[in-house]
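Journal club prep — side note

Before the paper discussion, L.F. wants everyone to see what a predicted structure for a comparable chain looks like in token form. Sequence:
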Amino acid sequence: MQLYKATIDPISNFSTPIKGDTFFGHICWGVLYNEKRLDLELEKLLDKYKDGKPFLVVSDAFAPGYFPKPKMPSYMLNEDPKDKKENRKKVWLTLEDLQNGNYKNAKKDKEAYIKDKKETIVRNSINYKTFTTDSGKFAPYGVEEISLSSKDIYFLVDEEQISSEKIKTIIEFIGDIGYGKDSTVGKGRFVVKNFEKIDIDFNATTYMALSPFVIDNTNLKRSFYEPFIRFGKFGGDRAYKNAFKNFVLLANSGAVLEFKNREKREFTGNAITNLSKKYRDSVMQGYTILLPIKDLSWKVIK
């Protein structure tokens, strides 16, 4: 498989954070809506996906040129325990620092040129038959929107199943129609600023996960992670009836996995099925891209 990086520039506010499993779902809808134009069949791609042969694995969105700080105990990151508040703000590391174990070089959002902002937009429900609120009274509610700066998203592509050019076309399609909640009213728009091949040596013992995933204990020595519960909702043509999926417990991005043997590992995890009684063919990304980082063999668990 080949790793690619897309750098995107948001051109509208977002109502949904960019997470790998959600973006993968958008790509599946993008494939479905463009099957004839791109000569693809989503059903065939997902059949292999469920058998442990993903055609694509998508990361979360990160600060350009950076990756998240690993989710390990503070002492393993060589952090000063007296500065817990400051340590929590330092969340970005370069690939070089991750692979050399220089966790003290972690940057804050401002230092990584991140200018993301969250704001609450006030709305009110309207009955379009009467053009008034149902209660006849003003009943406002708040909706959170996110203003995002540029982001890097990584795509691990099996080019025997789908070409990188087709993946890029689908990403651009998502940018045009919008990502996530409220895309029908203009949210989640972006342009693809750059799409490039990334060459990384995936031979390692210790890796960091770049998206939420299902932990596979095969040959796993130890792991460090924060839990992530996904209360998912269907999109596309399935967003209007029985839209909610069963909840799923995952390990969040930034998880650290140490394996017993050193070998080439590009991804780990499993496809997630049985998400709905109504839509039994639905599939969710439970895989994650593995980023090689500094070995933990020299660390002692206290």
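L.F.'s comment for the group: Residues 2-114+149-292 form one domain. Keep this in mind when we get to the figures.
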